[in-house]
Design goal:
The protein is mainly alpha-helical. Helix content is about 85%, strand content about 0%.
């Protein structure tokens, strides 16, 4: 996954989580995305 795509995914996650209102889930998803990027 390229860095620009990674940022797009994070932005999408943030937008969807703001609508749902689950900031803790957003943090978990961002952490898992970052871990995937490191591998």
């Amino acid at each position: 996954m390229s860095a620009p795509q990674l940022l797009k995914n994070i932005v999408q996650i943030r937008k969807s989580e703001q609508l749902v209102g689950k900031p803790a889930t957003m943090v978990q998803q961002m952490n898992s995305v970052i871990e995937d990027f490191r591998e």
